[in-house]
Amino acid sequence: MSYVSKTLLPGEKIVLEAHIHWIVLASAFFSWCVAFIIFYRHDYGMVARFAESVSNVTMIPLTVDTLMLYQRGAAILVGLYAIIQTRTGCIRYFCTEFAVTTERVIVKTGLLTLDTHELNVNRVTSLNVDQSLLGRMLNYGDITVEGMGGAFTPIRAVVNPLQFRRYMLTEVEGSKIE
Questions:
Q1: Measured at the alpha carbon of residue 111, what is the angle toward residues 136 and 31, in degrees to the nearest 5?
Q2: What is the pTM of this model?
Q3: What are the pLDDT tens digits along the chain (178 aa)?
Q4: Are 22 and 90 in contact (CB under 8 A)?
Q5: How far is 139 from 74, CA to CA, in rounded Å?
Q6: What does the DSSP assignment read for the chain?
């Protein structure tokens, strides 16, 4: 059962549940690709020529084995960075929930620590959507809900942010009429 479902008030219904876009995992994917390319790229002839040219210029003897060791070390460092990116992206992708209900906007983030923001729809003053060119092509963007007395921090990489805005504004206008 999701956090949003557990925190519904009596008579409150979920109008729209939104999700984070898969793009938050793209940096991890590219980091893994770079790590694998560095680790598995073996052109001994090119490495031997490079080692010979560096040895001639710097007078420091470099061997192919030494350069291959440096290459493996670089691959391991990039791999560690990819692990961190994967962990961060997965936590963000799988542990972020947000929804528009008939009464509130609810945002929950975090895995071990819980960070929640809730704002009554009748207290919303504006809703901003920011989309980059890539965001428009892949249909994701950042949303900032501003309310009386403060603003949410932007919710990054929301799938279909214009639909989220449409449902949110419909609920805000409906709460002002009642």
A1: 55
A2: 0.76
A3: 688 889 999 999 999 999 999 999 999 999 999 988 888 776 666 666 676 777 676 666 767 777 778 888 888 999 999 999 999 999 999 999 989 899 988 889 988 888 888 888 888 888 899 999 999 999 999 999 888 877 677 889 999 999 988 888 888 777 655 5
A4: no
A5: 35
A6: --HHHHTPPTT--EEEEE-B-GGGGHHHHHHHHHHHHHHH---HHHHHHHHHHHHHHH-----HHHHHHHHHHHHHHHHHHHHHHHHHHHHHHHS-EEEEESSEEEEEE-SSS-EEEEEEGGGEEEEEEE--HHHHHHTEEEEEEEETTEEPPPEEEEESHHHHHHHHHHHHHHHHH-
Q: In the structure encoding, which two tokens stand for residue 99, read together? A: 């929804």
Whole-number Å distance between alpha carbons of 176 and 126: 13
Q: Which of 32, 14, 21, 26 is nearest to 103 (CA)?
A: 14
| CB neighbours of residue 78 within 10 Å | 19
Q: Is 148 helix (H, G, I), strand (E, B) or coil?
A: coil
The DSSP symbol for 155 reads E
Amino acid symbol at 6: K
